[in-house]
Amino acid sequence: MSPCAGRTLFFFREKQGVSGLRIRQESDLTTNGIKRTTPPQAVQKIRDGVFLVQVAISESPSADWRRLFYDAQQDVPPDFAPRSIEITGTFLRFKADPNGVEQKITVLDRWMDRANQKEAAMGGRTEVQRQKKEEMDREAKELAGWNERWANL
Q1: Average pLDDT over residues 86-101
Q2: Which of 29, 65, 130, 152 is the most exposed place for a label (fewest CB within 10 A)?
Q3: Total-model pTM
Q4: Crossing angle for the helix pair 63-71 and 101-121, nearest 10 degrees?
């Protein structure tokens, strides 16, 4: 594993400000992008032989990443379109029969990698997106603290 795995790298770009002063702009790119963090889990039986399957992902995707995930895919199986996947917070959900889950997870991982590559090629996140991610990270830590505190109740 790379020594930078899971860390955030910062890239600085200087731009000429209105007053003639140089302004440092910071954007961040997660070195690994958004990744699946759990194995698939059946969360609801839709009907005989069809389940709602859920996987957790490493962070809540930005609007740009979601657009890239849905629109920038190639070799889409006819029975598994990107738009059939629901993205909610840090979860991806889709319907599947038990025998097709492994294949769909392989396709899903490939689609996430492609969205990550496309987002990185776009130059990363804007300042507003970076601030939103920092806020969400702080909230996630706060929730984890409360959940740890309440774990033995």
Answers
A1: 95
A2: 152
A3: 0.62
A4: 120
Mean pLDDT calculated for residue range 85-104: 94
In the chain, domain spans = 1-32, 34-123
Q: Does domain 34-123 have CATH number 1.10.287?
A: no
**Of 57, 51, 47, 110, nearest to 87 (Cα)?**
57
User: Is the four-CA dihedral 52, 104, 109, 102 of positive or negative sign?
Assistant: positive
Return the pLDDT at 4: 41
Cα 17 to chain centroid, rounded: 33
| CA nearest neighbour of 134 among 50, 31, 40, 27 | 27
Q: How would you write 46-75 as a 3-class SS string? A: EECCEEEEEEEECCCCCHHHHHHHHHCCCC
The span from the CA of 10 to the CA of 140, in Å, is 21
Residue 127: pLDDT band (50, 70, 90) is low
Taking Cα atoms as reference points, which of 143, 140, 142 lies closest to residue 132? 140
Instruction: Tell me the C-alpha distance between 44 and 41, whole Å.
Output: 9
Q: Is the dihedral of CA 55, 91, 68, 23 positive or negative?
A: negative
